[in-house]
Each structure stands twice: as structure tokens, then as C-alpha cells.
């Protein structure tokens, strides 16, 4: 302790002297003054920094400041959010008053677009942007979540599993029946958002219309997301910043199941009786249970409580960045450790991102970005019906968890439909599945300025992805406490004590070159920018897997420790793209703007005659505010009308679909040996080619009251034709899967509105904004066909001309039958229909309810998505809140938990308390029934079970405080900001069985729930 | 500076050189053939015929399905009540099995048609080519005969799958389909060998046996008898001496098996052992157990040997070889009363277990499922011959060899045609129990409306299920409503 103190004091004084040496080493003087705004009002909290140092201060309540500087050749930078900045050389002054004007920076705000950047004011297309400020300190574990809140983009995070919690992204609705994912480019290279550390993101631009996206032609039909990563600044001293947070998570919603065994058993018996089946649990057994007290024999287990718990999360990111006259650099390291709220799941991510550019001369610069991310993820090895999540919903209260002797328990009761108890906790803890994945990318560019100011840029990138999945199925024994010496083995598929290892390997290479010519103010009026480019990309995919059985126990899990039945498999394929593209921009006095883009793409996915296609776009904008007749309307700062039209393509289907492939995995046993077998299993269409999307966009941007209010409105019509899809064909055609063919047409029409307001009241800075997007999806053309999707109970969804894609197709429920008489007077449903069952409407009034009475009754796509953003700053405190909402979307889960007693599962407390009985006729739900093993009359697909899954969610709430004091700057800390953050804190929705943000098309609720997260963190910048 | 210009120009030139080649976009599949490069070698042709055999492993034709279809007879019942078909509560929408059966049949038919249309392209010796054609004809006939048995008429498609032309063909009549089936089988008979060096493929005997079955199901007695006689005259098959042994793993591919679906661990297995043991979907009924005769050849109500205190003693040996009875030895231990909770009885046929050896439960079973066996041929012959010309000597010989295999007494002499018919029907039920054939028998004999209307009892005589059968409708399965939705030209079966 003594030594510690001694050394500490020595070090402290040394640091103090060094620091003071910097401050006091030269002739220093005090500068003071006042900072005011455009209306003459004083501005508290404005910052003053000595350029190139971390020395600085802030104005007080009256706008006054005082700062000690070391020399007269220092430059002071005065700035305040929303009001730009001013640089003033100190010179001989000791009193410097500054008047800041409105954020003229708005005029120079630059937006990242395809193959370059453009000033926002001259943008003719529809682009939504996010900068790193908005993402700051939010506990985003997967970068897909970073897109939530952008106008016109529906981001749905349907799983909260660590390492596998990506969200689906839909830009301007669903445009195709195939892959709807947008093209994601990171620093120009196609990349997977999961492998980008959100802390490394500098900007996100989403190109929504054809004008902005056409330059990416064949992959841009679903929109393009451009991400740039952080880089250093020239002539900036090294900045070190550390961002860390620690937090806790728990599930947002978990179903409340009946966990009292006697209640469950009585309900099950009642359902069997209602179905005309024999009673399941005898009266003696139920009595024994009522009177019993041994928890091993008479458990009342709540499985969701056992399997879900509060889990910790932590994330640390360190960044060094800076630059000299010629070099800029940025290096970041990240570490994320997230334990899962479901037992047995967790993930870790390590990431690195380095970005170096070197400016050799005015004409030549080059650079490289090297980034890597490594994920290590664990979960249970058993899936599908034996999965832990399925088990959570299926396991009954009569199933014991762990017996008092420590072994896993089983029940002594016999339950038809559930005689094999798949102990979910045993499965979660005893099984092993580990996935390690690594992505490494090297991106190099060189930029050279040729004569006539033509800039040549070449970029070459290699993106390599590898993952290893290692999966071991354990041997698990469960014991019935009434027969404690007889172990029961849980059986799985693949079988117990087997290991499978899969390796996936992808290598993507890209090479593109551009020539860019930019000339401003030709004859003081015209500006012209031209771009010409060529790109080549190849995508190589391969995988390899090994499997073996015959392990002697659960301890060793490597392939070589197995002994019998080895199986092996693997495949590889390659696809390629080649394109020529170009763009021309013309601007007259920055008032009239014209732009055209084109791309000519060739893809290896189609037969030779159909490979190439041309995608053009045209757009124009009129900055009407610049016109002389608008000069008097001073309330309007800027008003721009935009219009665009263009065509884009989608080529995202499987490979080799234009030929009829022979499936050679139809082997069998003949002559006691395995023999190879083959057959065609799907038809093909040799004429397939691109899907084409034509987008027309009209919009305007409006700024009012000194940029205090910004409004953007866009009307769009996105029409997709030649949609590639596999059509259903009748089974008599060899029961083959139908061919993938260009056939259908779909359109998405809508409007996006966003408004942002910023203001200052005394010391309080306020920014509030909201956006809402309405999208109307319609199937325009299906050649008179109707495509049905079915589940085990019949038709459930339909794709039909004149309606949105994947509409819910159901019987119409009209409530419950209350009496025998009512049943008899109603159209015929089923011989076993009785009071308490659901009444279905006889749509065509033919006296019976059958498949002709089904109709479109709901939507799987939201009518509107919206978001609200709020930011408050006051004296170093900041508060930000972000709401996200989805309106008018329906969900139809069935299966375990959603239906009572489904196939041997249990039922929710809600159902137990609210089902119809002769005594409780005013009930919400029909009488107890067996949805899978009975007459199926109440489980028929109908509007009865259709639910509204609209929601409004407080997605993020953050409160922080920025310390900025002299003391801190003496130890070179320019900023210290602790904060507390809550994610998914509040959700308002009518659907409460699970999190409403889920996979809408999913048939059951067995998805990994999202988490409510509360984190405490800090930013430290040196 | 000049160096850098040179460098950049080189980069651009190399870039443009790379750019000019359209060949860059050519890719070929590394692991899939397509129709352009198929039908070229003998190995590919054999692989294609094997692909048709693979369809037999679909659970609609072999393991599991034959058990579930036994529930459509008074022999067995499912405690979970998972199929409305069992109790007559079915309609065109609520039984997926109905659709699965239709689809599985057309999978096989489509592959056989594709094979027959394309085989001539492949260069190979004529004998092999003919044999392969014979196999394809047999398999196609098998799948169409299934369609006829369950649904009646069906679209008769004999060319390789062609979406444009085949998609809206209506159902052909039952007679048209049967006539094609018989044609295919006659072709097969002329092309197939008597046997192969290794079992599993279709033989001449298999084609004749299937022909006999199809004719029998159509009640064409003289032709059915003739086809069955041809099988017998081949002298290729005989009864396996041990009834239980016939269905055990160590005796696979014995002299009684005419055609079976093959399985092998670990690649292709089924879960029959597990399903039977856990009574998922299947359990023998009291009615079936009671139908077994006493060892003197009389029924339990007539025989003096019957002792209500030990009702399972002195019974037809096939009872204990087909059904597990509580308090008897099985798998090395005495079976407890509560082990088979559905009805008290359990299935034994088609498990891999022996009575006296304790064996752990087998997760994946590789026991072959027999589709055609000599015992069935003898019974078919006897039934057809009896109907065609009365109970003559050949009928007695056939029936007695079935009886003597299990040491049961021979048929009583001087039976009338009607009496012999009852005896044969009863013997069919016993001999072929749990092999998935009885449901076709009760339908073609038109006794289903009594047999499937009423209660199902467990070993204690308690009612466990109530069934109903609508004779105007239920003799045929409905065409699933989704199937009709896909092709509205298909007509639904009457009554649905």
C-alpha cells in the first residue's frame, strides 16, 4: 500500500508537470468574450476549442467564456449544435465575441451515394441517411438493427438470440416473391451486416428510389444500403476513444402457461371428453396428485421460468484515429460478450477495423481498409421438434425438472400425444453446438487525378468468410420417480452420441474502376459531373461436412472420438457479375438539377442468351426557393421538388435454375447395399431472366423558419414485373416442384413523410422528429393463377391478383355456438359441432361451410411503419428517445401454446380461465378441444385466431451526462460521458402472447424472444 | 511522377483486358447433372431406376403406413385419436394422409414415366435395357394400383411429366386405370428375370403376384386364380417354416418373400420398433385377439379348450407370434399389465425383438417391409379359385399349407363354397394381420360397414373408441380439397 501510494504520487506529479508544461510552457494569456446566436441572444453551452488541441471550454449561462491559451498564433474554434462553427485566430485580441449563424453547414452537408458523395441540396433521388450520432451508445448487437427508424424502411428483428439476432430489412415494401433483402455495401463492397461492428459505422445511406439506386442495377431492386466506416481526419491529433457498457437483459414477453398440474389434467380430460375420446388421466391419478406433496412425483413445473432468466451483456470498443498532413488512420478494436436469456445460449464477438489512407501528392492517394470480425456462438445442438424453444412451449406442468437426487426427471403419468418427454433443460445444458465464424476483408483503393481533372479510382477487395459449426448430440437419461432404476433415453435425430462438423467457406472478389469528372461553376452557372465505371465480381461458395456416431459417452466431442457410421458431404459453386455503369449530373445555378444513371449488367445465373440487361434512370429537381419570385418568402429556407424514374433488377435466385437438374440423392437399398439413385424433382424454365423493378418517385424537401423545421415528402410507385418464383403445379405432374419462372407482377405504392424540428429554449436544445411511411402492396399480375400456402389445417395464405402478397386466407368466424338449436339452424359444419364451438360463416350460402367459404381476411405486411425521435440537451445532460411502430399487420400463430393442448402440449392461463363451458357462455375462447388429435373443427384456419400485431415500441431511451472540466483536460481527457440506456422498455400492442416484433409468417411462437436491455456505459475520449 | 502514370495506365489496361471477356460469366455446376448431360451412360440409367425404388421407402408404402392403415380395420386402433379417418369423421380437408398418398403415388409414376421415355437414349446391351424396362413397368403398375385401391379412378398419365399438357387432365375411370396396370404387369412379366443375385429388385414372380392381387381386388376370380397359380408354378418361392421368424431381422429376404422394401442401418432406417413399443398410433384390439382360433381349429366360443381364466392358452400359435399378451414372456421378461396402456395388448410382428432375449430398445430399425409374400399368394389363389370354381382340391392344398406351417389343424372337409369363403376370409385376417392389407379386404368384401361401425374394446372389455362408417361414401377415400384446388378438373368421389 505504501509503495502504491508513493508511486502514485510520483506519477501524478510527473503527469501534472508535463501537462502544465504544455499549458505554462509558453507565454500564456486569458481570452474571454461572449458567444451569441443569429438573433443576438446569448448561447450557453457553446464550445470553444483551441484548434489542434484538447484545450477548451464552454460558455456559461450568459454566453460568456474565459480560456487560457498559450500563444497568439493559436486559433479558436467556436461551435454550437445547429449553428455551424467559426474559426478565429487569436492574434492580439484578448476579448473575442462571436456571433454564430444558422447552420450553413446544411448547404454543404454531403450524402454518400453510389460510387461517391453528393451535396444534399443537389440530390434528385430519395435517400435516407443515418449518421453515427444516432447510433451512438445504443446497445446494437447486430448492425441490421441500426436501420430502425429510417423512413420507409421496415426493420423487423424477430429473434433475440445472441449472434443470430439479425433483423429483416424491407425498403418500400415487399417487391418480390423471392429474396427481398436489399443490397448491402460496406465501403463499396458487398458485405454481411452481421459482421460489421456498429461502432465502426460512420454513415448509413439508404438509396430508396431508382434515381439513386440504378447505378447498382442488377441487385438494386430491393433498395441499396451504403455503409461507410469511420476513418481518421487529416491534421488531427491522435484521438483515443473508449466506449463501454455493461447491462442486463430479460425477455420482452413470455407466455403464461398453466403450471398447476391438477388444473392442467382436468382441462385435458375435459378436452378429450369434448372430442368424444376417452379420459386421459384417471380420477385416482388426479386424486393422488391433489393429495401428494413429493415434488418429484407431483411437480407443478413452470418451464418458461426455468428456461429463461436475466442475462448480462457487455461491449467494449477502443478506437485510435487521427492524421497528419498526408496520412489518415483509424484503428478500432471491439469486444462484445452477450449471454442469452435462454439457457445455454451466448455469443462473443471480436472485431477489428483499420482504415489508412496516404496522400502521396495532390494527384495521387491510396489507402486500405482491413477489417475482421470473429464470432463464437453457443446454443443447443438439437432442433426442430426437440428444440429447447419447442420444449418450453410443449412441456407440461406434470413433467418434473430435476429430481431430488439430481437426475433429470420424467413423469409417471401417461399422456397420449406426449409420451416422450423431451426434457428441455437437459437438452439445453447437455447438448453442445458451437459456431465460430470469421470474416476478413481487405479493401484497397488507389485514386489518381488525370489531366483535365478526371479522377481515376480503382478498388480491389477480397472478402473471405469461414464458419465452423460443431454439433454434438448427447446421451440424456431421464428417470421416472416411480421406477427410479429404469433410465429412459431421449432419442434424437441425428441420433445420440453423434457429432457433425460443417465448414462453410466463401470468397468474394470485387474489382471496380471509375472515372469521374467534376466541374463546378462553368461560366458561373453550370455544374457538371460525369462518372463512368466498370466492375467485376465473383462469389465463391463451398461447404464441407463430416459426421460420425458411436461416441462412448458425453465427454469427448471431436470427430476422431467417434467410432462408427461416418458420413461426409460437400459442395461448391461460383457465381459472377460483370457490369458497365455511368452517371451524369447537370446543375444550372444549383437551381435546376438533372441526373441520369445507367448500368449494363451481366450475370452467370441465367442462360447465355438471357444474361445481360440494361437499367437506366432519369431524375430532375427544382430548387424553387432559389427562384427570384420566392425571395420574399423568408419563412422558407429551402424548397426543392424532385422527380425520378428508373429501372432496377433482381437476380437473387438459386444457381442453375435454367436447366432441369437431376437430383442424385435419391439413393436406396437394393441387394443389401446402399445404391445411388437419381430423379428429377423439379421442373425448370430455360428462359428465365432478371426481375425488373420500375420505380417512379415524386417528392419535395422543405425547410422552414431558419431550418428549424425540415419536412420531406415522397410519393413512390414501385412496380416489379417478371417476378421469379416457383409456381405450384398439380401433383399429378409427377408430384414435381414447379418451375421457377418469370411470371408475376407486383407493385408497391406509397408515401413517406418525415418532419424534423430543432429549437433552443434558454439552455435547452431540443430536436424532435418523426416519420411515417404508408405502403400499399398489390399483386398486379399472376396470369389468373392463385397460389395457396397451406398448413396442416388447410389453406392459410394466398397470393392473388388484386390483393397484397401473402394475404391471410381464412374462414370467417362469427363467434361461438351457444346452443344445440343454434348449431342446427346454422349451415352444416361438421357432424361433431356442438355448443361452444366456433361458428363459421357460410359465405356462399350453400348450406355448408367448406373450402368455398374461405376469403382474404388479413395482411402479413404492415400498412404503415413509423418512428419518432426525441433529443434533449441541457447543460451537459442529454436525453434521447426513439420510438418505432408498425401499424395494421396481422399474425396467425397456431401450434404449441397458441392453441390449447396442441398435440400433447399444455395451455395458457388465459385459455384456462376464459374458455366456453355451459356455465361460462360469455367466454372469449371455444370449449376445450384437441387441435391436432381430434375432429379439428375449432382449429380450422379462421379469423377467430387471427390477431392484430400492430405495435408501438419505445425502442431506445438514453440519458447521459457529459463531463467537461478543466481537470479532465489536464489529463488529456476531452470527454467523459457516462450514460444509462434502456432498449425495448415499453411496448404497446394488442398481441401479448409473444413479442409482436416477430416473424409474421411463422406458424408457432417458438422464436427466440427479443430482450429488454438496460445498460450502463460510458464514453471516454482522450 | 512518370512512373506513377505508367502504373495507372497499366492498371487500366489490365482492367480492360479483364473486362472484355464474356466467358468470365460462364459457370458450370460442380455437383449436379442436368437433362442435357444425363441419359448417357449405363450407370446413370441404373441410378435412375434406383430412384424409382427409392419412392417405395416413402412412409405411404412401407414402414409406419401399414400400421396406421391397420387402424382402418377392426384389428387395431390409435389411442391418440389422431386421424378422423379411423372413426369416420373425415372430410376432404381434414386428413393430410389422403393428400400424401396421392402425391406419393404420382412421384413414383412420374419417375417411371420419365425413365421409360428416356431409356432408349442410353447405349447399353439389350438384355439389361429390357430388364430395366420391366422393372419400371412393375413399379408404375404398383403405384397406379395403389391409387385405384384407395381412390378409384385417377388421371392416367403415361408420358414423362409435362406441365403444360398434364396439369388439367381429369380422372380416368377405375377400369381404364386397372386395364393399364394389367398391361404394364404383363409387359413386366415378359421382361423380368426369375431372380437376381442380390434381393430387392422386381422379379417375374413379383409382377405375377401383384397382378393376382389387382385382379382379386377387382373380383375377377378366374384371372386372379390363374395369375396366382403362375406364381406357384414358378417354383421359386415357398413358405418359411417359422411364422415369427418370417418377420425377424436375421431371416430377411427368405424364400417366402416375393417383394419387399429394403432398409439398412444407418443410411435408411425407420422407427417401427419405437412406434410399436410406445404405441404411437397403433394397438391391437380385443376383437382381433378374440378372432384367433383355438389350437383345435375352433373359435373361442365353440371350442372346449377355451378357458376364460387363461384365455390365451392353447390358441393358434400365430396369436402370440403377432401380438404381445401381458403376463407372457417378451424381450426376456414377463410383460406387465400396464405396459401397453392403449388396449393392454402390443404388436409383435415387425419388431426386431425376440421373446426370450432381453434387448434394449432399438431407435432405428432396418427390418424390411414385405409387400408381397408367398403366403399371401396362396391365400389369394384359394380365395379366387373358390369363387371361380368352388372349394376344389387345389384350394384345400393351398389353405392347408398355410395351416400346417403353424401346426394348426387342416381345413374341415366338405365345406360349401360359402363356408369355404368364410374360412378363407378369416384365415386372411389372421395370417396377414398387421401387414396393412386387411383394410382392402374388408372394403372389397363390403363388410366394412359392419366391421367399422361400432365400438372398439380393450383387453378388459372397456370401450375405448366409437367408430362409424358411411357405406355410401367411405369405401373410397376423398380426393383432398387442395388436390382439387390445384386441378379443378378432378371430380370428387361421391358423397364428399
Number of H- or I-type helical stretches of chain A: 12
Classify the secondary structure makeup of chain A into a structural class. mainly beta
Largest sheet of chain A: 22 strands, antiparallel, barrel
Q: What's the β-strand tally of chain B?
A: 11
Radius of gyration of chain B from the CA trace? 27 Å
Distance between the termini of chain B: 88 Å
Distance N to C terminus of chain A: 29 Å
Question: Strand pairing plus helix content of chain B: what structural class?
Answer: mainly alpha
Helix amount of chain B: 40-55%
Question: Overview of this structure, please?
Answer:
- The complex is a heterodimer of chains A (1022) and B (496).
- With 1022 residues, chain A is mainly beta.
- Helix content of chain A is 9%, strand content 46%.
- Chain A is built from 12 helices and 52 strands.
- Chain A has a 22-stranded antiparallel β-barrel.
- In chain A, helix 8 packs antiparallel against helix 9.
- The longest helix of chain A is centred in the N-terminal third of the chain and has 23 residues, at 2-24.
- Chain A is globular, with a radius of gyration of 32 Å.
- Chain B has 496 residues and is mainly α.
- Chain B is built from 19 helices and 11 strands.
- In chain B, the strands form 5 sheets. Chain B has a two-stranded antiparallel sheet with strand order 2-4.
- In chain B, helix 10 crosses helix 14 (374-389).
- The longest helix of chain B has 26 residues, at 126-151.
- Chain B is globular.
- The N and C termini of chain B lie far apart (88 Å).
- At the A-B interface, strand 22, strand 27, strand 28, strand 32 and strand 33 of A face helix 1, strand 1, helix 2, helix 5 and strand 11 of B.
What layout of secondary structure does this protein have?
The complex is a heterodimer of chains A (1022) and B (496).
Chain A: H1 2-24, E1 29-36, E2 47-50, E3 56-58, E4 64-69, E5 75-79, E6 85-89, E7 98-99, H2 105-108, E8 110-113, E9 116-119, E10 127-131, H3 132-135, E11 153-156, E12 168-171, E13 183-186, E14 189-190, E15 201-207, H4 210-213, E16 224-229, E17 236-251, H5 261-274, H6 283-291, H7 303-307, E18 311-323, E19 327-339, E20 346-359, E21 364-379, H8 388-394, H9 424-430, E22 432-450, E23 454-473, E24 477-479, E25 487-489, E26 498-522, E27 526-549, E28 564-588, E29 592-603, E30 612-623, E31 636-650, E32 661-663, E33 668-670, E34 673-675, E35 679-680, E36 691-704, E37 709-726, E38 740-761, E39 764-781, E40 787-791, E41 794-799, E42 807-810, E43 813-816, H10 820-825, E44 838-840, E45 855-858, E46 864-874, E47 877-887, E48 890-891, H11 909-913, E49 947-948, E50 951-961, H12 966-970, E51 975-989, E52 1011-1021
Chain B: H1 2-19, E1 33-34, H2 42-54, H3 65-70, E2 76-77, H4 84-87, H5 96-118, H6 126-151, H7 163-166, H8 174-191, H9 204-217, H10 221-233, E3 257-261, H11 272-278, E4 283-284, H12 286-291, H13 317-322, E5 323-324, E6 329-330, E7 333-334, E8 346-347, E9 369-373, H14 374-389, H15 393-405, H16 417-431, H17 438-444, H18 448-451, E10 454-457, E11 463-467, H19 481-486
Antiparallel strand pairs in B: 2-4, 3-9, 5-8, 6-7, 10-11
Helix pairs in contact in B: 2-5, 2-6, 5-6, 6-8, 6-9, 8-9, 9-10, 9-14, 10-14, 14-15, 14-16
Amino acid at each position: 500500500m505504501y509503495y502504491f501510494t508513493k508511486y502514485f504520487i510520483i506519477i501524478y506529479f510527473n503527469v501534472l508537470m508535463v501537462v502544465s508544461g504544455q499549458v505554462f510552457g509558453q507565454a500564456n494569456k486569458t481570452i474571454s468574450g461572449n458567444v451569441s446566436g443569429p438573433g443576438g441572444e446569448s448561447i450557453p453551452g457553446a464550445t470553444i476549442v483551441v484548434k489542434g488541441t484538447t484545450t477548451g471550454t464552454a460558455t456559461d449561462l450568459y454566453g460568456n467564456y474565459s480560456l487560457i491559451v498559450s500563444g497568439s498564433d493559436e486559433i479558436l474554434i467556436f461551435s454550437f449544435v445547429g449553428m455551424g462553427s467559426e474559426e478565429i485566430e487569436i492574434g492580439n485580441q484578448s476579448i473575442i465575441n462571436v456571433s454564430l449563424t444558422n447552420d450553413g453547414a446544411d448547404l454543404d452537408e454531403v450524402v454518400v451515394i453510389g460510387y461517391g458523395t453528393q451535396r444534399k441540396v443537389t440530390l434528385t433521388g430519395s435517400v435516407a441517411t443515418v449518421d453515427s450520432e444516432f447510433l451512438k451508445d445504443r446497445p446494437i448487437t447486430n448492425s441490421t438493427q441500426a436501420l430502425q427508424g429510417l423512413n420507409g424502411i421496415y426493420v423487423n428483428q424477430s429473434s433475440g438470440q445472441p449472434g443470430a439476432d439479425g433483423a429483416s430489412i424491407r425498403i418500400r415494401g415487399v417487391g418480390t416473391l423471392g429474396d427481398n433483402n436489399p443490397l448491402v455495401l460496406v465501403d463499396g463492397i458487398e458485405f454481411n451486416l452481421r459482421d460489421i461492428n456498429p461502432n465502426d459505422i460512420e454513415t448509413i445511406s439508404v438509396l430508396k428510389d431508382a434515381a439513386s439506386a440504378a447505378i447498382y442495377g442488377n441487385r438494386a431492386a430491393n433498395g441499396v444500403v451504403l455503409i461507410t466506416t469511420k476513418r481518421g481526419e487529416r491534421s488531427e491529433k491522435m484521438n483515443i476513444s473508449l466506449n463501454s457498457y455493461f447491462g442486463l437483459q430479460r425477455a420482452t414477453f413470455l407466455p403464461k402457461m398453466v403450471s398447476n398440474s391438477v388444473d392442467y389434467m382436468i382441462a385435458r380430460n375435459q378436452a378429450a371428453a369434448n372430442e368424444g375420446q376417452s379420459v386421459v388421466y384417471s380420477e385416482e391419478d388426479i386424486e393422488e396428485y391433489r393429495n401428494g406433496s413429493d415434488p418429484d412425483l407431483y411437480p407443478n413445473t413452470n418451464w418458461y421460468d426455468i428456461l429463461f432468466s436475466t442475462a448480462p451483456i457487455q461491449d467494449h470498443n477502443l478506437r485510435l484515429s487521427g492524421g497528419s498532413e498526408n496520412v489518415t488512420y483509424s484503428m478500432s478494436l471491439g469486444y462484445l460478450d452477450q449471454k442469452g436469456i435462454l439457457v445455454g445460449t451466448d455469443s462473443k464477438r471480436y472485431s477489428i477495423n483499420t482504415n489508412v489512407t496516404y496522400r502521396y501528392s495532390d494527384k495521387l492517394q491510396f489507402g486500405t481498409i482491413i477489417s475482421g470480425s470473429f464470432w463464437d456462438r453457443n446454443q443447443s445442438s438439437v432442433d426442430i421438434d426437440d428444440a429447447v424453444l419447442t420444449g418450453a412451449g410443449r412441456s407440461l406442468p406434470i413433467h418434473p425438472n430435476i429430481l431430488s437426487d439430481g437426475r433429470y426427471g420424467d413423469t409417471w403419468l401417461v399422456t397420449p400425444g406426449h409420451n416422450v418427454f423431451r426434457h428441455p433443460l437437459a437438452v439445453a445444458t447437455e447438448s453442445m453446438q458451437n459456431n465460430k465464424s470469421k470474416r476478413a476483408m481487405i479493401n484497397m483503393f488507389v485514386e489518381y487525378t488525370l489531366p483535365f481533372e478526371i479522377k481515376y479510382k480503382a478498388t480491389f477487395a477480397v472478402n473471405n468468410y469461414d464458419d465452423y459449426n460443431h454439433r454434438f448430440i448427447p446421451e440424456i437419461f431421464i428417470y421416472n420417480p416411480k421406477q427410479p432404476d429404469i433410465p429412459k433415453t431421449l432419442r434424437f435425430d441425428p441420433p445420440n452420441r453423434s457429432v457433425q462438423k460443417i465448414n462453410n467457406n466463401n470468397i468474394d472478389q470485387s474489382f471496380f474502376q471509375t472515372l469521374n469528372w467534376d466541374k463546378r461553376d462553368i461560366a458561373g452557372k453550370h455544374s457538371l459531373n460525369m462518372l463512368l465505371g466498370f466492375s467485376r465480381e465473383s462469389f465463391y461458395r463451398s461447404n464441407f461436412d463430416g459426421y460420425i456416431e458411436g461416441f462412448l459417452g458425453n465427454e469427448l466431442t471431436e470427430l476422431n472420438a467417434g467410432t462408427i457410421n461416418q458420413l461426409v458431404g460437400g459442395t461448391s459453386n461460383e457465381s459472377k457479375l460483370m457490369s458497365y455503369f455511368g452517371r451524369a449530373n447537370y446543375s444550372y445555378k444549383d437551381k435546376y438539377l438533372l441526373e441520369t444513371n445507367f448500368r449494363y449488367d451481366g450475370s452467370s445465373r441465367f442462360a447465355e442468351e438471357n444474361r445481360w440487361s440494361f437499367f437506366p434512370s432519369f431524375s430532375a429537381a427544382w430548387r424553387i426557393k432559389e427562384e427570384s419570385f420566392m425571395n420574399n418568402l423568408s419563412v422558407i429556407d429551402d424548397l426543392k421538388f424532385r422527380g425520378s424514374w428508373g429501372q432496377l433488377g433482381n437476380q437473387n435466385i438459386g444457381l442453375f435454375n435454367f436447366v432441369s437438374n437431376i437430383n442424385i440423392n435419391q439413393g436406396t437399398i437394393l441387394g443389401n447395399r446402399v445404391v445411388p439413385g437419381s430423379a428429377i424433382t423439379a421442373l425448370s424454365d430455360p428462359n428465365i431472366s432478371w426481375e425488373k423493378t420500375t420505380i417512379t418517385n415524386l417528392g419535395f424537401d422543405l425547410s422552414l423558419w431558419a431550418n428549424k423545421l425540415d419536412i420531406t415528402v415522397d410519393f413512390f410507385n414501385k412496380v416489379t414485373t417478371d417476378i421469379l418464383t416457383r409456381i405450384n403445379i398439380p401433383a399429378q405432374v409427377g408430384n414435381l416442384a414447379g418451375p421457377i419462372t418469370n411470371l408475376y407482377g407486383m407493385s408497391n405504392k406509397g408515401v413517406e413523410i418525415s418532419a424534423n424540428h430543432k429549437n433552443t429554449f434558454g439552455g435547452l436544445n431540443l430536436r424532435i422528429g418523426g416519420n411515417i411511411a404508408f405502403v400499399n402492396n398489390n399483386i398486379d399480375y399472376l396470369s389468373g393463377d392463385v397460389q395457396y400456402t397451406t398448413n396442416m389445417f388447410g389453406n392459410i395464405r394466398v397470393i392473388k391478383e388484386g390483393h397484397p402478397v401473402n394475404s391471410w386466407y381464412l374462414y370467417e368466424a362469427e363467434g361461438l355456438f351457444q346452443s344445440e338449436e343454434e348449431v342446427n339452424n346454422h349451415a352444416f359444419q361438421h357432424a361433431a359441432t356442438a355448443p361452444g364451438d366456433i361458428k363459421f360463416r357460410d359465405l356462399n350460402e350453400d348450406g355448408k361451410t367448406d373450402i368455398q367459404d374461405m376469403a382474404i381476411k388479413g395482411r402479413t405486411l404492415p400498412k404503415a411503419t413509423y418512428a419518432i425521435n426525441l433529443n434533449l440537451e441541457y447543460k451537459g445532460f442529454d436525453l434521447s428517445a426513439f420510438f418505432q411502430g408498425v401499424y395494421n399487420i396481422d399474425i396467425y400463430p397456431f401450434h404449441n401454446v397458441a392453441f390449447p393442448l396442441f398435440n400433447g402440449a399444455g395451455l395458457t392461463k388465459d385459455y384456462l380461465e376464459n374458455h366456453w363451458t355451459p356455465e361460462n357462455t360469455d367466454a372469449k375462447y371455444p370449449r376445450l378441444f384437441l387441435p391436432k388429435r381430434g375432429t379439428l373443427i375449432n382449429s380450422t384456419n379462421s379469423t377467430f385466431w387471427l390477431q392484430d400485431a400492430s405495435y408501438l415500441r419505445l425502442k431506445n431511451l438514453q440519458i447521459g451526462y457529459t463531463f467537461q472540466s478543466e481537470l479532465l483536460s489536464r489529463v488529456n481527457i476531452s470527454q467523459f460521458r457516462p450514460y444509462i440506456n434502456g432498449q425495448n422498455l415499453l411496448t404497446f400492442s394488442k398481441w401479448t402472447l409473444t413479442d409482436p416484433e416477430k416473424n409474421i409468417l411463422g406458424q408457432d411462437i417458438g422464436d427466440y424472444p427479443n430482450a429488454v436491455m438496460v445498460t450502463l456505459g460510458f464514453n471516454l475520449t482522450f | 511522377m512518370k512512373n506513377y502514370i505508367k502504373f495507372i495506365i497499366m492498371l487500366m489496361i489490365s482492367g480492360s483486358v479483364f473486362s472484355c471477356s464474356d466467358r468470365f460469366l460462364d459457370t458450370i455446376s460442380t455437383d449436379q447433372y442436368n437433362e442435357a448431360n444425363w441419359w448417357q451412360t449405363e450407370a446413370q440409367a441404373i441410378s435412375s431406376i434406383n430412384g424409382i425404388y427409392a419412392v417405395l421407402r416413402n412412409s405411404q408404402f412401407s414402414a409406419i403406413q401399414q400400421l396406421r392403415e391397420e387402424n382402418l380395420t377392426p384389428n387395431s386402433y390409435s389411442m391418440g385419436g389422431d386421424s378422423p379417418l379411423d372413426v369416420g369423421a373425415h372430410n376432404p380437408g381434414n386428413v393430410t394422409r389422403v393428400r400424401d398418398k396421392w402425391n406419393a403415388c404420382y412421384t413414383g409414376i412420374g419417375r417411371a414415366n420419365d425413365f421409360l421415355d428416356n431409356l432408349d437414349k442410353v447405349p447399353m446391351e439389350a438384355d439389361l435395357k429390357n430388364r430395366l424396362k420391366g422393372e419400371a413397368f412393375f413399379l408404375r403398375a404398383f403405384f397406379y394400383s395403389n391409387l385405384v385401391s384407395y381412390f378409384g379412378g385417377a388421371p392416367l398419365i403415361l408420358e414423362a411429366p409435362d406441365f403444360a399438357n398434364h396439369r388439367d387432365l381429369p380422372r380416368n375411370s377405375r377400369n381404364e386405370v386397372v386395364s393399364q396396370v394389367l398391361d404394364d404387369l404383363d409387359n413386366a412379366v415378359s421382361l423380368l428375370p426369375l431372380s437376381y443375385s442380390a434381393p430387392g429388385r422386381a422379379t417375374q414372380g413379383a409382377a405375377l403376384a401383384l397382378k393376382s392381387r389387382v385382379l382379386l381386388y377387382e373380383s375377377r376370380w378366374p384371372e386372379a386364380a390363374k395369375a396366382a397359380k403362375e406364381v406357384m408354378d414358378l417354383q421359386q418361392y415357398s413358405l418359411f417354416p417359422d411364422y415369427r421368424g418370417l418377420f425377424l431381422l436375421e431371416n430377411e429376404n427368405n424364400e417366402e418373400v416375393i417383394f419387399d422394401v429394403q432398409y439398412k442401418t444407418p443410411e435408411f432406417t425407420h422407427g417401427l420398433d419405437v412406434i410399436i413399443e410406445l404405441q404411437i398410433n397403433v394397438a391391437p384390439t380385443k376383437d382381433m385377439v378374440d378372432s384367433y382360433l383355438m389350437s383345435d381349429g375352433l373359435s373361442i366360443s365353440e371350442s372346449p379348450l377355451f378357458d376364460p381364466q387363461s384365455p390365451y392358452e392353447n390358441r393358434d400359435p400365430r396369436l402370440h407370434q403377432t401380438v404381445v399378451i401381458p403376463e407372457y414372456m417378451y424381450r426376456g421378461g414377463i410383460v406387465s399389465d400396464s405396459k401397453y396402456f392403449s388396449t393392454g395388448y402390443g404388436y409383435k410382428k415387425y419388431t426386431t425383438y425376440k421373446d426370450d432375449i432381453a434387448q434394449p430398445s432399438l431407435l432405428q430399425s432396418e427390418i424390411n417391409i414385405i409387400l408381397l409374400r408367398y403366403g399371401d399368394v396362396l391365400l389369394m389363389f384359394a380365395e379366387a379359385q373358390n369363387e371361380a370354381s368352388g372349394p376344389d382340391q387345389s384350394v384345400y392344398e393351398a389353405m392347408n399349407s398355410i395351416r400346417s406351417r403353424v401346426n394348426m389343424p387342416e381345413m374341415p372337409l366338405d365345406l360349401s363354397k360359402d363356408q369355404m369363403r368364410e374360412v378363407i376370409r378369416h384365415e386372411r385376417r389372421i395370417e396377414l394381420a398387421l401387414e396393412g392389407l386387411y383394410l382392402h379386404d374388408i372394403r372389397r368384401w363390403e363388410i366394412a360397414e359392419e366391421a367399422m361401425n361400432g365400438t372398439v374394446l380393450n383387453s378388459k372389455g372397456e370401450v375405448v373408441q366409437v367408430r362409424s362408417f358411411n357405406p355410401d361414401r367411405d369405401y373410397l377415400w376423398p380426393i383432398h380439397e387442395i388436390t382439387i384446388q390445384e386441378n379443378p378438373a378432378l371430380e370428387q368421389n361421391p358423397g364428399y
